[in-house]
Design goal:
single chain; mainly beta; 2 helices
């Protein structure tokens, strides 16, 4: 006599394995971070940007993600940001930070890795922007046109590579810290 597995029995066994391992697996670096994380959920309505940030020189400090509206004259000016999300740097992997925007439109995204977590910009800190423009010293701030992204309804996914000062005259990506 041949034994046969029923789908119900097999499904129950798989369900038991999945339900017990779901609680044993720690949170991963790929989890969506930030106070606006719910805005990037599949069921969310509205508009948001999900920034995948990578290229960390060290795994210390804080990561700040800011959005700016479609005003090239005020891009990066003090007090002109639309929204800021700040999270501790994760111990490993890429960081996925969600930031809600007011609605469909054109925005710029700026990211800063505050390596010592003191809240002040320093030469050892890293940074990056939407569309990853090439940055140059002595003024590493790009033009708005070089970072502008169109966001529609839903979630706009972007990739941001961090840049750090390298020597006296250059700025760019580094080998990622492990």
């Amino acid at each position: 006599m041949r034994k046969s597995w029923t789908l119900g029995g097999l499904g129950a066994a798989i369900g038991l394995v999945l339900s017990t391992t779901a609680y044993a697996v720690p949170a991963r670096a790929q989890d969506v971070l930030g106070a606006d994380a719910a805005a990037c959920a599949p069921s969310a309505s509205g508009s948001a940007v999900l920034a995948r940030v990578h290229g960390f020189k060290s795994r210390t400090g804080k990561l700040r993600v800011q959005t700016y509206g479609n005003d090239p004259e005020r891009f990066l000016d003090k007090g002109s940001k639309l929204r800021r999300i700040e999270v501790p740097v994760s111990p490993a992997g890429d960081m996925h930070v969600c930031i809600e925007v007011p609605g469909p439109g054109t925005y710029g995204v700026a990211v800063r890795h505050d390596r010592d977590g003191n809240g002040k910009s320093g030469w050892s800190d890293g940074g990056g922007f939407s569309r990853n423009p090439k940055l140059r010293l002595p003024n590493p701030k790009p033009d708005f046109d070089d970072v502008a992204i169109d966001v529609g309804p839903g979630v706009k996914r972007i990739d941001i590579v961090l840049n750090y000062k390298n020597g006296l005259f250059s700025i760019g990506p580094v080998a990622e810290a492990r």
